[in-house]
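Exercise: predict the fold of this chain.
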Amino acid sequence: MSKCELALVMPVYNEQDIIGEVIREWTNRLNQLKIDYQIHAYNDGSKDKTSLILRQLAQRNSRLIVHDQANSGHGPTLIRAYRDNLDAEWIFQVDSDNEMATDKFVELWEKKNGYQFLIGRRKDRSQPFVRKIISAVSYWVVKIFFGARVSDVNCPYRLMKTTSFKDIFFALPDDMFCPNVVISGWAARKRFAVYETDIPTQPRMTGEVSIKRLKLLRAAVRSFSQTIHFAFSHNHI
């Protein structure tokens, strides 16, 4: 990857109805800020026309780099994206569903020089009761086993100083289900300077949630187990 000031990494799965709008909005926002950036869209084995749309966009947008891969899941895709872009000074991760708008990124970018980890804390988020419980348990798992410095531990709107997070990116198991939870915990343990700001969310209108019903509960148990195991097995880094 070429060196740049900012690498925006975005895992994508079956978002043909919204991905064009999302890429255009982020491109416009980053252009307005006059940032030297690249947008890395990681197409995680989408079954619809997502890959085709991304490829067409990339032909007209030199800032967009498309990575097609067999479906591996959200967590492993994020880990790959983080490791791929270590040459960038900053890495920003955001989801592809347009639930969180681009405007609040301006605040994170303007604050970045005083912090290593900047979070867009989800506000007024509409989600099923089960997901609310999982979010609450995730927070307490991180607080108990790492320390409390991040309130939205699985936030998909995070700006990270690459040099500060390089070690954790490589320490994460390749198959970790929810790496962002562990990354939040690790930032707490290392006592990084953390900045959080509320970001309004809007309901998902397109695409599909990849984990549903009982699979979600099983995935949550797996995430909690991996997080706790990592906390004890990597307390030296």
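Check your answer against the key: The CA atoms of residues 177 and 223 lie 6 Å apart.
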